[in-house]
Amino acid sequence: MALSLLIDYSRKGDFLAMRHPHRAGRFVTQLSGQAGYRAFVPAELPPQPSVEWSHELQDLLEIANRGVGRLDGASLVLPNQALFLYSHIRKEAVLSS
């Protein structure tokens, strides 16, 4: 799922994940039947081929860093961070099922 989200947010196929769809890792099926699930196994480091630091990739990294910074700032003013986190995890679980 994470890989598909990465591909969905890439721009016109220029982003590395689009050119190398298995670059970040792979999904492995664990167990079987109704108890079965897919686990993400990350690829070995350093990545092959190596990361190309294009201007577009730097721009995306800056956007992501700003988003993490905003989230960190918002968490400082929350009275109960665990409750906030739980509500968003629950919402994501409901939306993805």
What this model shows, in words?
This protein has a two-stranded antiparallel sheet with strand order 1-2. The chain has helices spanning 2-8, 16-19, 55-76, 81-96, and strands spanning 25-30, 37-42. It is flat. Residues 1-20 have low confidence and may be disordered. The chain has 97 residues and is of the alpha+beta class. The protein starts with a helix and ends with a helix.
Low-pLDDT residue intervals, each spanning 5 or more residues: 1-20
Number of extended strands: 2
Measured on Cα atoms, how large is the radius of gyration?
Answer: 17 Å
User: SS-based structural class?
Assistant: alpha+beta
Helix and strand succession? HHEEHH
* Shape type: flat
Q: Structurally, how many domains make up the residues?
A: 2
User: Number of helical segments?
Assistant: 4
Q: List the strand order in the largest sheet.
A: 1-2
Cα-to-Cα separation, first versus last residue: 12 Å
Record the SSE blueprint:
Blueprint: H1 2-8, H2 16-19, E1 25-30, E2 37-42, H3 55-76, H4 81-96
Antiparallel strand pairs: 1-2
Task: Give a brief outline of the structure.
The chain is α+β, with helices and mostly antiparallel strands. It folds into 2 domains: 51 residues, no CATH class; 45 residues. The protein is built from 4 helices and 2 strands.
Question: What labels describe this entry?
Answer:
97 residues; two-stranded antiparallel sheet; 2 domains; disordered N terminus; 4 helices; alpha+beta
